[in-house]
C-alpha cells in the first residue's frame, strides 16, 4: 500500500512531471524486472534499467496503440517484453512496458495503478483550472456598489474628520491591492482575515458605526492555506443582503477554528435572513443574479479545489439572520501559499 501511495505522488504531475523517472524506478522494483519504460502516445517518456532499441520499442508500442490491448514480444537476445496500455478518463494515453521476465497479469495490475494515478492527476489539474477561472471571474466582479459607497464616505469625511478619511483611504487602497493582487490562487487564513477586517472597517464607516463586528480566529488556523478571496465575498453578501435591509444596529461575526483535520470558518449575521429555498438556489447559481454571484463562485471554487464534499453550508430563515460555514482540510495536495 505504501508503494501504491508513493507511486501516486511520483505521478501527481502526469507523465511529463519531474518525478516520472522515480515512478519508472519504483515500478521496476514492484514488478521485479530488468527494465521499465513509460510512454505517451508520442513515444517513450522515461525508462529505468534495461531499455530495448528504438525500433524494438516502436514495434511493441505500435501494437498497443493500434489495437488498444496488451502486446508481448521478444528481443533479439531472447528477452521477453510486455506492454500494457494506459488510460486516462477512459481514453488511451500511453503504455507501460516491462522488460525481462514480466508476468503479464502483474504488468496489467501495475498499469491499472499508473492509469488511476494519471487519472487523479488530470482531475486535479482540471480542478485547478476551474478554480483559477472562477477566481478571475470573482476579481472582475468586485462590487462597484461597495467601491462607490466607500469613496463617497471617504469624501464626506475629508472636512469633518480628515484623520479618519485618510485612514479609510489607506484601508481602501489595501483592500484593492489585495483583491487584485497576482500572488496566486491561495492565501493564508491570516491574509484573508486581514483583508476582511479592512473591508469591514470601510463598511462600518458607511453604516455610520451602527455595524457591530466580532472577529475570533484560533491561532492554529491562521497559517493554513485556503483558496484566495473566500471569506470576504461571504461577508459582503451578509452585509449587502442581510444587514443593509435591517433597521437599527446590525452585527456580523467571523470566526475560525480547528475541528480535527478540518479548518472551519463561520460568518454569521443577524440580518433579515432568507428563505432556505433561496439559499439553495444561490449555491446552485440559479438565484437572483445580483445575489448569487459571490456565494456560488466561492462554493464552486471550494468544490473544485477540495472535492464535491467540500463547499458552503448555509443556515438561514426569514427574519432569523444567516450563518455560512466553510469547512476545508487543513492540508490538501497543491494547496500552498
What's the arrangement of strands in the largest beta sheet? 2-1-5-4-3
What's the number of helices?
10
Rg (C-alpha, Å): 27 Å
The geometry reads as: elongated
- Tally the beta strands: 12
Which H/E pattern describes the elements? HHEEHEEEHHHEHEEHEEHHEE
- In terms of DSSP E residues, the strand content is 15-25%
Secondary structure class reads alpha+beta
- The average pLDDT score comes to 83
Portion of residues in helices? 40-55%
Termini distance?
30 Å
Stretches where pLDDT is under 50 for at least 5 consecutive residues are none
Q: The biggest beta sheet, please?
A: 5 strands, antiparallel
Keywords:
10 helices, alpha+beta, 24% strand, five-stranded antiparallel beta sheet, 337 residues, five-stranded mixed beta sheet, elongated
Short description, anyone?
With 337 residues, this protein is of the alpha+beta class.
Report on the structure:
The chain is built from ten helices and twelve strands. With 337 residues, the chain is α+β, with helices and mostly antiparallel strands. A hairpin with a 2-residue loop joins strand 9 (250-259) and strand 10. Helix 1 packs across helix 4 (104-140), helix 5 packs antiparallel against helix 6 and helix 6 (162-179) crosses helix 7.
